[in-house]
C-alpha cells in the first residue's frame, strides 16, 4: 500500500501542474486539440477515482478520515488547505455572529479588538489596489482576469484573518485553557501544567526557544509559565515545545483573575 500511495502522489504532482498549464492555455485562447483535452479529462477522472478507492481502503483498515487523507496528501499541503478553509469558514461565522469552540460551561475571552483598525485599514488598501489594477489592466483581459481573482482573494484573506480572530476567542473550561490566534494557532493547555500566570503588558517580543508570543496589535498582556513543555505545532506541522506563553485579551485582567482562580481550583 505504501508503494501505491507514493506512486499516486507522484502522478498527482505530475498531473496538477499539467492541468494548470492547460487551464492557462484555454484562458489565453490557445487552441487545444480535442484528443488532448479528452485525455486530460480522462486522466483527471481516473486519478480521482483511484484516489477515492485508496481513501476508502485506508478507512476500512481503521484509519480516521483525516489520517487517510494525510496518507494521500502531504502534511504541509493538508495543513495549508485546512488553514485556508478555516479562514473562509470564519467569514461565515462572523457574518452569522457565531463563535467557534465556545461550548456550554466555557468562558470566552475575545482578543481581536486591538487589531481591528489595522486589519480594516489593510483590507481597504487591498481593495483600493484591486480597483486600481482593474482599471490599469482593462486592456489586457487575460492578465486582468488573473490579477482580479488574486486581488479579490487577498481582500477575503485579510478579512478572514480578522474574522478568525473575532470568532475564535480564547476559551477557559474547568480543565483546559485554549489559546488561539486567527486560524493558525490553537493551543490547549491543561490547567494542572500551569505553574504561574501574570498580568504583564509587553510591546516587544524577542524570539526564544521554548517561548510562544501570541501578540495582538504588537502587544501581549498575559504571561503563562508551565511546569513542563506543551507542543504548539507550527503552521506546517513542525513541533514546537513551549514552556512560556504570552497572549493578549481585550479584558486581560478578567482573564488573569479567571485563570488564576481556575488554576488554584485545579
Short synopsis of the structure:
With 266 residues, the chain is α+β, with helices and mostly antiparallel strands. It contains 7 helices and 8 strands.
**Terminal residue distance:** 46 Å
Q: Helix tally?
A: 7
Q: What percentage of residues falls in helices of 4 or more residues?
A: 40-55%
Order of helices and strands: HHHHEHHEEEEEEEH
Evaluate the radius of gyration. 23 Å
Give the strand line-up of the largest sheet: 1-2-3-4
Uncertain regions spanning at least 5 consecutive residues: none
How large is the share of residues in beta strands? 15-25%
| Tally of DSSP β-strands | 8
- In one word, what is the shape? globular
Provide the structure class: alpha+beta
Question: What profile does the largest beta sheet have?
Answer: 4 strands, antiparallel
User: What is the mean pLDDT?
Assistant: 86
What would you note in describing this structure?
By secondary structure, this protein is an alpha+beta fold. Among the domains are: 2-73, no CATH class; 170-265, no CATH class. The chain has seven helices and eight strands. It has helices spanning 2-27, 34-60, 65-72, 75-95, 116-136, 141-167, 252-265, and strands spanning 107-109, 170-172, 176-181, 185-190, 194-202, 211-213, 220-231, 241-247. It has a four-stranded antiparallel sheet, with helices on one face. It has a four-stranded mixed sheet with strand order 5-7-8-6, with helices on one face. The longest helix has 27 residues, at 34-60. The two termini are 46 Å apart. The mean pLDDT is 86.
Amino acid at each position: 500500500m505504501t508503494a501505491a500511495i507514493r506512486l499516486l502522489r507522484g502522478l498527482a504532482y505530475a498531473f496538477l501542474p499539467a492541468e494548470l498549464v492547460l487551464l492557462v492555455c484555454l484562458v489565453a485562447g490557445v487552441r487545444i486539440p480535442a484528443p488532448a483535452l479528452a485525455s486530460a479529462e480522462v486522466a483527471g477522472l481516473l486519478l480521482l477515482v483511484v484516489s477515492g478507492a485508496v481513501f476508502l481502503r485506508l478507512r476500512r483498515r481503521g484509519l480516521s478520515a483525516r489520517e487517510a487523507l494525510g496518507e494521500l496528501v502531504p502534511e504541509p499541503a493538508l495543513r495549508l488547505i485546512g488553514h485556508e478553509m478555516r479562514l473562509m469558514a470564519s467569514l461565515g461565522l462572523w457574518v452569522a455572529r457565531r463563535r467557534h469552540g465556545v461550548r456550554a460551561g466555557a468562558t470566552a475571552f475575545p482578543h481581536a479588538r486591538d487589531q481591528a483598525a489595522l486589519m480594516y485599514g489593510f483590507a481597504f488598501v487591498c481593495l483600493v489596489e484591486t480597483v486600481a489594477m482593474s482599471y490599469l489592466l482593462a486592456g489586457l483581459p487575460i492578465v486582468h482576469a488573473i490579477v482580479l481573482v488574486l486581488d479579490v482573494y487577498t481582500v477575503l484573506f485579510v478579512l478572514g484573518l480578522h474574522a478568525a480572530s473575532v470568532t475564535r476567542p480564547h476559551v477557559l473550561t474547568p480543565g483546559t485553557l485554549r489559546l488561539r490566534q486567527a486560524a493558525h494557532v490553537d493551543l490547549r493547555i491543561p490547567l494542572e501544567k500551569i505553574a504561574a500566570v501574570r498580568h504583564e503588558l509587553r510591546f516587544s517580543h524577542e524570539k526564544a526557544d521554548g517561548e510562544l508570543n501570541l501578540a495582538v496589535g504588537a502587544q501581549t498582556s498575559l504571561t503563562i509559565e508551565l511546569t513542563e513543555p506543551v507542543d504548539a505545532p507550527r503552521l506546517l506541522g513542525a513541533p514546537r515545545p513551549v514552556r512560556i506563553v504570552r497572549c493578549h485579551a481585550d479584558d486581560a485582567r478578567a482573564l488573569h483573575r479567571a485563570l488564576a482562580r481556575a488554576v488554584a481550583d485545579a
